[in-house]
Amino acid sequence: MGILRSFSKDIGIDLGTANTVIYVSGEGIVLQEPSVVAIDKRDNTAYAVGDEANKMIGRTPGDIIAVRPLRDGVIADFDAAEMMLRAFIQRVKRGIFNPRIAIGIPSGVTGVEWRAVMDAARRAGAREVYPIDEPVAAAIGAGLPVTEATGNMIIDIGGGTTEVAVMSLQGIVLSESVRVAGDELNEAIMNYMKKVHNLVVGERTSEEIKIKIGSAYPTNDDASMEVRGLHLLSGMPRTVTVKASEIRESMAEPLSVIVEAVKRTLERTPPELAADIVDRGIMLAGGGALLNGIDTLISHETGIVTHIAPAPLNCVVMGAGHVLEDYKRLSRVLTNRIRNF
Ligand code: ADP
Ligand code: MG
Prior knowledge:
This protein is an alpha/beta fold. The chain has helices at 2-7, 50-56, 78-92, 111-123, 134-141, 182-197, 203-213, 244-250, 252-268, 271-280, 294-302, 315-325, 327-330, and strands spanning 10-15, 19-24, 28-34, 37-40, 45-49, 64-67, 100-105, 128-133, 152-157, 162-168, 171-178, 199-200, 224-231, 237-243, 282-285, 306-308. It contains 13 helices and 16 strands.
């Protein structure tokens, strides 16, 4: 066992709708790239994955397509998801012998899809594969005391989905997943630019606007930014200056969907656990936690102190890694769905 252990490492994977992150025990995070695969349609193989494939979106010739297979939190394109996962695992697996792999994937993914993901990981050389519900992994990675009999609320705002969960004693007591998260915020900005400024901007530009001057609550209202796009009426490139307050308003509707999901979950939470959450506060994870003022918005709307996890983009992968490293203590968190396989 001792010798085997020294060759065998544990791998944690966050198969996110926007980003895939991989952690190797003893090494840390070894890969963090967009969940994108470019497929060569001539022989149905992965032409590129991650950063490289992401640059190809909207720029591929006819026989190559670049896709985000998990975009909305369900596996829209099975083969593509599998190809992407295998390519990522193969890239990090060099020199790692028979790893155990823990994978966190969005909770909207069905049992059949879980099986496909697990099979893909096995075919990529995993000795054992452990599926973990993402909110659970996020809670562990955010450092919440999930093994205690205390209520904890975690909100994971990703690209395609927002997951809200209340946990106690290593289990999810209740949870809700909505398909409104970072992507929808980008879309709201794109629509706003078109409607109000007659400017057509791409998804990358709208994401840049969101990250640079976007906010969920008035924090930086003096900020503004020059945005380049195509003028709708003349069809010519044009530069427009937008203010932070406009961008906040443009995102108000999708943000309210997220807030409502949090409120609904709180309303359904049993009173003892709700009292714990009031005491301990709410924890935010996922890339959406980095939106300016999102913590203030949620705490204003719920009346509960809201914290942003350190390194919110890495919570799920760190949680998945911890489960394997501390398997005796944490194995109860592994999803019940594993029993259905
Ligand atoms: P997933 O788990 O679904 O792959 P992530 O947790 O990786 O998603 O988060 C990706 C989302 O976070 C994207 O929509 C991205 O625009 C958003 N994001 C990343 N950084 C920031 C930031 N600084 N401000 C606002 N949104 C951000
Ligand atoms: Mg995620």
